[in-house]
Each structure stands twice: as structure tokens, then as C-alpha cells.
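Q: Please design a sequence for this.
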């Protein structure tokens, strides 16, 4: 019988086992480094023009250091089960190595295959939006992946890569790269000490991200040191990007991304409201008083949230594409005013919905999943305010009512009616929803002209997998192709994306014309839900990449309605409309500010904007990037206070209620 002492590892057994672990570590480090280099090579069009070879070298080196953590983790994933099996039943050790290696390499290969289309779509590595999947329409998401991203082909390629890597690893493990330890000699302890030092060195590299101490450790938060956004993303291997997504999602759910004390919130709220800090009731600071109607009260207000409706196609430099001509014609009309410095509330459609419906900015809360959002409408919610102004309220969504719990969320926030794909007579469209023309046709036919109403319409056609039959709709594909830069003229995906923007514009303009005829005393608001999906340039400016249009047209609209240097974001839509139509003295709660009352700042999840400049909110100091040829002047202190005030109010009020109380933060991680 084998005794317990006989099962304990000898030095030679320890050496043999850990040497195998070292091979696995260096194998994964080499694979991750090669994958990073190939990713940079294949996707180099996304690098800025000024990026140099030295920047690439820095990215490769820093990425390799960071991947020491990943390689160590993958090696440990293989080492730990095999060690346990070796200790208790040695014949299964090789099987344990094979199973864990196969699992690791399959995960690595699938993530790598997915990283290319993911970056093209989001201009980032894996981030916290992947955790939204549970709230998505899973079937629609699957169909979109199959149709647009060729899921079966990519999956087959990933599995083939995993098999080849597995064979390479098996071959490596059969080779005695590390020389066998010689028979005991007087200097044998030194050899063993050197080997243990090597193990300790690798352990430190794994622990501290390519460094020997925590002070110099590389992690996902400090890895991006180049001036190129693409390279900074490439530094993170896919496992590190997933870890980042996991951490940020936990912060998102736990509100750890915000760290305001109640004293700071009180100060910021008072500053935002331009009044003394004499109460801890936030609703006092949120309360606004309308200055008086600036236009005759419209019978109907249509607020159109248009999918991926970016502002850049409306710029003169892209006029030769002719994909936004109907909207540009609308901008020239006497009854239309346009703000070209406007930000979405977040990077996704659900952020736009929550920002417009509740009036709160993105503040690391997922409002459509929070119990507080379903208990009662927030005081800043748009629907109850407009009900007090005499309007019925309805929300029209082209997709399914189950997406992001949108129907129960909107009803909980005060909307009288909600219409979605299941309510429409035609189901023509993509897996995400009906085509825009069907949504508009349903709204036109069902809305009662005699009943005053606020109608919010959310369309989906300008969204992957881009299934509209553009040829049948009359899209001049070859004319647009000829207008593109030479290096993009053969990009069929880009042409399809531009064609869907053209379609969204065409149907939007047709709806506005028809609605103005059927509902002559109506006001129309046009806004994109977000931008940042596609651009002509691989490295667009922040303004061209993130800005969305804000357009008012219709009954009573004049060119001088908005401040000449107005800027804002989606939380400013409701107060702007209220100040246009509400009687003097009408009280309402709002975090945002009206563009008719001099609001010249907008802020969202990661950016700020003024009439002259745009920048990121996470830089110290704030860095202003000029918009067009306008001087990029910035009052940094005022902008920072505004950013913090909007975020603090939009965090505390929906999560903890109106009263500031430090006890509510006890136990928060």
C-alpha cells in the first residue's frame, strides 16, 4: 500500500511539474503577445496618423508586461487541477492538463476572433456593455451575430485556431526545453536555489503585471500610456479587457464609480441651483420655475429618438455624400432651429431612453433594472410633468416591449400608453424591430389629432444587422461610393451603414412632412440616441465621433429660440421643451437646464461639450479639443463643478431618494 509520505512530491517530481508550468506560462505569454501584434497589424487603420513606430513598440512592450498576469492566471488554471490530481491519483494528471488547456485555448481563441468585429463596432475592447446581454432580446442578438458578423464562420475559425494552439502546446510539453537536473553534486543546492529564484521571478511578474513590486505594477487601469486610443485598447489582451468589464460593471451596479460625500453633494447641488446650501432635501435644489411660454402651446409634441443618428453627416465637409440632404433642407426652413453641439446621455440606446424619460444623467446606475425606478415616477420624469401641462403621454418603440424592460419602465415612469412591435400591423424589419416607415405609419394612423399629446418615438432601422432593402428604397449606392475616399470605396459594410443613415433620414423627413400636414399645430424634436458607431475616418475627432443633433421644428419655432452658443445633452431636452410652452410660474424638477435660458454646457458618461470645444471628463486637467474653427476657451473650474453636480444629483436622487443622509452610505463598498 502506498503511504502518505510516498505520495509527497520529491524534488525531481516538483521540478518536473513546475517546469511544465513554466512552459505553459511562457507559451501563453508568447501567444497573447503575438495575438496583440497581429491585431495591431490587421487593424492599423484605426491608429491616428501621427502614431509612430515607437508608440507601437511601447504598446507591445507594455501589453506583454500586462499579459504576464493573464499568462500566469492561465498557467495556474492548468497547474492547480493537475497538482491535485497528481497528489491523489497520478495516472489522471495528463488528462487534467489536457482538459484545462483545451478549455483555456478555446476561450482564448473565441475571444480573439470576437475582438475584431467588437472593436469595429464599439471602438474599444470588451467593456461593460457586454453585461447588458441578459437584458437584451437574446434571439435578436443571435440572429444579428449570424447575419452581420458571420458567427458560424468566425466560430469555426476560432475552434480551428484553438486546435492548432492546443497541438503546439502538447508538442512543447513533450520537449525537454529545461535541461534535466544532474545527479546530486556539491553545487546542486545552488542550482536549486537559482531555479526557485526563477519561479519566484515569474510569480512576481504574474502578480504585479510584468513588474517585481506593486509600485511599478501594470494593470488595466494604468496600462494605456500611448497617445493613441487604439493602441491603448490593444495593450489589454482580451482576458484583461473582460476583467475590466467585470470590474466596471460591478462599480456600475454598486455605484462605486462615484465617491461623493453628502457634504459635497449639498455644495454641488446648491451651486447647480444657484442658491444657498441651506437644506439637505435635493428636491429643493432640483426645483425650477418656468419664465413663461415662448411659443404658442402646441397641440402635439413629437420627440423622435433616432437610432445611431450622429451629427457628423450634417456637417458641410460631408455634404458631398448626400446621405443627410432631407434633414439639411429641414434645417434651412424658417420654422426650424438646430443645436450642433449636443451629446447623448450614454453610449447605448438604453442610456438615451433613461436620460430622456427620467431626466437623470448617466451616473453608474442601470435605471431600467433598479427597483426604485418601478416604485414611482421620479420628480424629474418627463411624462408626469407634461401630464400636468395637459398632455397625454405615449411611447412608441419599433422593437419588442421586453427589450431592457422598456415597457414596464416607461409605464412606471408615468407614460399613459406604450406601443411596440407587437402592436403594429406589419412585422417587416430586422430582428431588432420594424422598419422606420412602419413605426411612423403606425403613429400617424393611431394618434388622435384632437387629443393633445407628448409622443416619444424610438426607431431602430439604422442599426446592425442593417437589413433594409436599400436598392428598393432608392439608395444611390454608386453615387455615394464614388464620393467616398479612395481607400474606403470598396468597404461594402461602410456603404451599407451610410445607406441606412440615408434611409433613416429619408423616412424621418417624410414623417415630419406628413405629421405637419395632419397635425398642423405640432412641435417636433429630433435627436440621435447616440453616435459612435461608424465614421468615414478611422480616427475621427471627438466632436465628429460623439456629437448628435438636436433639432426643433414646427409650430411657433423661430431661428432665435435657442441661445446662440447653446450646448447640452439629452437631460436638457425636457427643460427646454417646458420653458418653450409652460406658463410663467410653472414649477418642475430638473437636473438639466433649458437651451432657451442660456445653457451652454453638456455632459454625459465620459465627455463634456460647449459651443466651442469638447473633451473627456476623466482628464486632469480637462483638455479642450476645438470644434470646427471655434476658439476652444474653457472655464475649467466651472465645467468641473457642472460635471460633478450633474453626476452627483443623478446618482444620489434615483438611488437614495431626496434626503441627503450619510447613514445611507454605510456598508457601501
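A: Design:
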Amino acid at each position: 500500500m502506498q503511504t502518505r509520505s510516498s505520495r509527497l512530491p520529491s524534488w525531481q517530481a516538483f521540478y518536473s511539474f513546475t517546469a511544465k508550468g513554466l512552459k505553459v506560462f511562457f507559451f501563453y505569454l508568447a501567444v497573447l503577445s503575438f495575438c496583440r501584434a497581429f491585431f495591431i497589424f490587421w487593424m492599423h487603420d484605426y491608429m491616428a496618423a501621427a502614431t509612430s513606430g515607437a508608440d507601437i513598440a511601447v504598446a507591445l512592450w507594455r501589453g506583454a508586461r500586462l499579459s504576464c498576469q493573464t499568462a500566469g492566471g492561465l498557467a495556474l488554471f492548468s497547474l492547480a487541477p493537475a497538482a491535485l490530481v497528481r497528489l491523489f491519483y497520478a495516472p489522471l494528471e495528463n488528462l487534467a492538463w489536457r482538459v484545462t488547456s483545451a478549455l483555456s485555448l478555446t476561450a482564448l481563441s473565441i475571444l480573439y476572433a470576437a475582438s475584431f468585429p467588437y472593436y469595429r463596432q464599439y471602438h474599444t475592447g470588451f467593456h461593460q456593455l457586454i453585461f447588458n446581454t441578459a437584458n437584451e432580446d437574446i434571439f435578436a442578438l443571435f440572429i444579428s451575430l449570424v447575419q452581420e458578423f458571420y458567427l458560424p464562420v468566425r466560430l469555426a475559425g476560432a475552434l480551428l485556431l484553438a486546435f492548432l494552439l492546443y497541438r503546439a502546446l502538447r508538442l512543447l510539453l513533450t520537449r525537454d526545453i529545461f535541461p534535466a537536473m544532474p545527479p546530486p553534486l556539491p553545487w546542486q543546492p545552488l542550482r536549486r536555489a537559482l531555479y526557485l529564484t526563477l519561479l519566484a521571478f515569474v510569480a512576481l511578474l504574474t502578480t504585479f503585471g510584468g513588474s517585481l513590486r506593486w509600485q511599478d505594477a501594470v494593470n488595466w487601469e494604468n496600462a494605456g500610456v500611448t497617445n493613441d486610443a487604439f493602441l491603448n485598447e490593444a495593450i489589454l489582451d482580451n482576458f484583461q479587457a473582460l476583467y475590466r468589464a467585470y470590474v466596471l460593471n460591478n462599480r456600475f451596479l454598486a455605484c462605486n464609480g462615484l465617491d461623493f460625500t453628502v457634504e459635497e453633494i449639498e455644495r454641488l447641488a446648491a451651486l447647480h441651483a444657484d442658491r444657498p446650501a441651506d437644506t439637505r432635501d435635493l428636491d429643493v435644489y432640483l426645483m425650477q420655475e418656468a419664465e413663461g411660454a415662448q411659443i404658442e402651446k402646441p397641440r402635439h409634441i413629437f420627440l423622435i429618438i433616432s437610432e445611431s443618428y450622429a451629427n457628423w453627416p450634417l456637417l458641410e465637409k460631408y455634404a458631398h455624400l448626400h446621405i443627410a440632404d432631407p434633414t439639411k433642407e429641414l434645417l434651412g426652413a424658417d420654422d426650424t432651429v438646430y443645436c450642433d453641439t449636443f451629446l447623448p446621455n450614454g453610449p447605448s440606446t438604453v442610456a438615451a431612453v433613461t436620460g430622456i424619460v427620467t431626466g437623470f444623467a448617466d451616473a453608474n446606475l442601470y435605471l431600467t433594472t433598479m427597483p426604485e425606478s418601478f416604485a414611482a415616477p421620479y420628480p424629474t420624469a418627463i411624462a408626469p410633468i407634461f401630464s400636468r401641462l395637459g398632455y397625454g403621454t405615449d411611447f412608441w418603440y419599433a422593437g419588442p416591449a421586453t427589450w431592457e424592460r422598456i415597457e414596464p419602465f416607461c409605464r412606471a415612469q408615468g407614460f399613459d400608453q406604450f406601443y411596440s412591435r407587437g402592436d403594429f400591423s406589419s412585422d417587416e424589419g430586422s430582428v431588432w424591430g420594424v422598419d422606420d416607415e412602419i413605426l411612423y405609419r403606425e403613429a400617424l394612423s393611431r394618434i388622435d389629432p384632437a387629443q393633445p399629446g407628448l409622443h416619444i418615438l424610438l426607431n431602430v432601422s439604422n442599426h446592425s444587422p442593417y437589413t433594409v432593402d436599400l436598392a428598393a428604397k432608392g439608395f444611390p449606392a454608386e453615387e455615394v461610393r464614388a464620393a467616398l475616399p479612395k481607400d474606403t470605396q470598396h468597404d461594402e459594410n461602410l456603404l451599407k451603414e451610410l445607406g441606412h443613415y440615408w434611409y433613416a433620414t429619408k423616412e424621418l423627413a417624410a414623417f415630419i412632412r406628413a405629421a405637419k400636414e395632419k397635425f398642423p399645430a405640432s412641435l417636433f424634436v429630433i435627436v440621435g440616441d447616440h453616435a459612435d458607431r461608424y465614421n468615414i475616418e478611422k480616427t475621427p475627432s471627438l466632436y465628429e465621433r460623439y456629437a448628435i443633433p438636436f433639432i426643433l421644428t414646427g409650430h411657433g419655432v423661430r431661428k432665435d429660440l435657442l441661445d446662440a452658443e447653446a450646448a447640452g445633452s439629452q437631460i436638457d431636452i425636457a427643460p427646454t421643451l417646458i420653458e418653450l410652452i409652460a406658463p410663467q410660474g410653472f414649477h418642475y424638477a430638473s437636473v438639466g437646464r433649458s437651451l432657451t435660458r442660456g445653457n451652454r454646457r453638456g455632459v454625459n458618461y465620459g465627455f463634456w461639450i460647449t459651443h466651442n470645444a469638447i473633451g473627456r471628463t476623466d482628464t486632469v486637467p480637462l483638455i479642450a479639443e476645438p470644434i470646427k474653427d471655434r476658439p476652444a476657451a474653457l472655464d475649467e473650474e466651472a465645467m468641473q463643478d457642472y460635471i460633478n453636480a450633474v453626476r452627483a444629483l443623478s446618482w444620489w436622487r434615483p438611488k437614495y431618494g431626496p434626503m441627503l443622509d450619510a447613514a445611507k452610505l454605510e456598508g457601501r463598498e
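Q: Thanks. Anything notable?
A: Residues 124 and 233 are 6 Å apart (CA to CA). DSSP finds 23 helices and 16 strands in the chain.
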